[in-house]
Amino acid sequence: MSAKAKTKPAQLEAAEMQKARTFVGDAWNQFRKHKLAMIAIGILAVIILGVMFGPLFWTLDPEYIDFSVAYQVASPEHPWGTDSLGRDTLARALQGGRVSLMIGISAMLVSITIGTVIGLASGYFRRLDNPLMRMTDIFIALPQLPLLLVLMMLFREPLKSAFGVEGGVFILMVSVIGGLQWMPTARLVRGEVLTVKSREFITAATAVGSQDGRILSSHILPNVMSPVIVAATFSIASAIITESALSFLGLGFPPDFPTWGRLLFDGKDYLTITWTLVFWPGLLISLTVLCVNFIGDGLRDALDPRLRK
Predict the structure, then answer these.
(1) Along the 309 residues of the chain, how does pLDDT read in single tens digits?
(2) CB-hemisphere CA count at 13 Å for 97?
(3) What backbone torsions phi and psi does residue 73 show, to the nearest 5 degrees?
(4) What is the DSSP string of 28-42?
(5) Are the CB atoms for 94 and 50 separated by under 8 Å?
(6) Are 148 and 156 spatial neighbours (Cβ–Cβ below 8 Å)?
(7) d(CA 129, CA 197)
(8) What is the three-class DSSP state of 86?
(9) Which value, to the nearest 10 degrees, does the dihedral of the CA atoms of residues 191, 193, 196, 198 take?
(10) Which residue among 40, 119, 225, 231 has its CA within the 20 to 30 Å range from the CA of 182?
(11) Spatial separation of the C-alpha atoms in residues 167 and 156, rounded to whole Å
(12) Best CA proximity match to 87, nearest among 64, 110, 106
């Protein structure tokens, strides 16, 4: 067999492999090389599945009061201990995790949506660039924590009256946290839009008479989604930490509606009696935030075309 015949199958195989490559496949191959991100996905999946389906297996009532087992550190009946009223810490942590994760995801959607819209408008429409960026600078200059406290105090009672205690606090937290975290996303998207807008395919789309809305939705937005996805992961972590801080300060949900931050707030007064009241919710918050940050690092590496071969 000739050397040409031997090399032909190899050339065909290489061509087929090159043809089969996709953006998602390349990104996944690069993401798998980030060991911490892969470990973080596994740990975060366990936490999410635990708070979602854990109550189906751990059926203790998180609000059941039993003073005879109060302040337990750990026991076969209560492996994560109990609080001052004898309520099971594991059951309350599973129930509160749903709320904390929902607040983080919902606030992320609010902040990413606002930031992406403002970034697209600022980067594409020159006449809107200066006003929108000056507004962004003003929001960045505002002290975040004092402003959060003021907004929580002002709108807490009206929203409670309109939507109930749990619904009002949830809407308020999502709106306030998401409404004060969109600025980095807006700046990031604006920079990406300015880069994409100068490319040839945008010039060609403009030359053939495409409308601005179609150019933004069909050409520019898909090309800026990679950094937006990365920003979304970090936004979830930031929202969870902010919710925990507000709950720790006593401005979150009521005591009978636990979140991880609220569990920390309730347990701080009994730290010298039983450390589990603070340890377990603090561990869940730390693990969730670390995992989300590591996943964001992995996505940033995977979606960066300069790092993909």
Answers:
(1) 444 444 445 554 555 545 456 767 777 788 888 888 899 999 999 999 999 998 888 888 888 888 888 888 888 888 898 888 888 889 999 988 888 899 889 999 999 999 999 999 998 888 988 999 999 999 888 887 788 888 888 888 888 888 887 788 888 889 888 888 899 999 999 988 888 888 888 878 878 877 878 888 888 888 888 888 888 888 888 888 888 888 877 777 777 778 888 888 888 888 888 888 888 888 999 999 899 888 888 888 777 655 555
(2) 28
(3) -80, -50
(4) HHHHHT-HHHHHHHH
(5) yes
(6) no
(7) 14
(8) coil
(9) -90
(10) 40
(11) 11
(12) 64
Give, to the nearest 10 degrees, the angle between helix 260-267 and helix 276-303: 150
Under DSSP, the state recorded for 253 is S
Using CA atoms, how far apart are residues 72 and 76, in angstroms rounded to an integer?
A: 11
Residue type, 226: S
Residue 252, classed as helix, strand or coil, is coil
Tokens representing residue 254 in the block: 């009521």
192, 229 Cβ separation under 8 angstroms: no
Report the chain's terminal Cα–Cα distance, integer Å.
Answer: 34
Give the residue carrying structure tokens 């940033």.
300
